Predict the 3D structure of the following.
Amino acid sequence: MSHSRPQKVLISAEEIQSRVQELATQIASDFTGAPAVVVGILNGAAPFMMDLLRLLPASVASTLVYDFVDATSYRGSESTGEVQLSHPLGVNIAEQEVLVVDGIVDTGATLQTVLAVLKVKRPTSIRTCVLLDKVSRRKFDVPVDYRGFEIEDLFVVGYGMDFDGQFRGLRHVAVHSLST
Ligand code: IMP
Ligand code: MG
């Protein structure tokens, strides 16, 4: 039986945490003080979004509402090109400032689909925040307002990112190799 293992550490846990702190500081300073909703894209966004919320100043964090939508587009390390959305949003975002959070943006299909669904609900604004951005892979022109790291076209795992459900619990981001 062949086990695939994550290989090289691409971004260490320490680098992630210090970048997430910078993003939290930037996001907090951009808030107008209006009611805000943070929407995470499951499953990949979960560790990043929780760390981000935890690192926001208490004054901002205490006024936020958060929820998740569920989007799936990958099978193994290949994008299927079709985004499946489930788990509808349970909170009202009309006339709210919305921040959409995901772990990684690749072709942009997922973010584009989620943004289209949320826009119909008439929020005041929608901004996006992703930890990892594979800029060279973009097919859909989606706005990324807050970006943790730009990465090359590599399949990565850890800190929420998975290969068929595995490795999400790593504290760091690793390049996934199928050959070991
Ligand atoms: P997109 O729809 O092509 O932008 O892909 C975004 C989604 O694909 C992310 O939310 C992840 O779930 C998944 N994804 C894209 N690249 C990777 C990767 O390198 N590792 C793990 N998941 C990935
Ligand atoms: Mg995802």
In short: Residues 12-74+83-154 form a domain with the Rossmann fold fold (CATH 3.40.50.2020). The chain has one domain: 12-74+83-154. The CA atoms of residues 81 and 99 lie 24 Å apart.
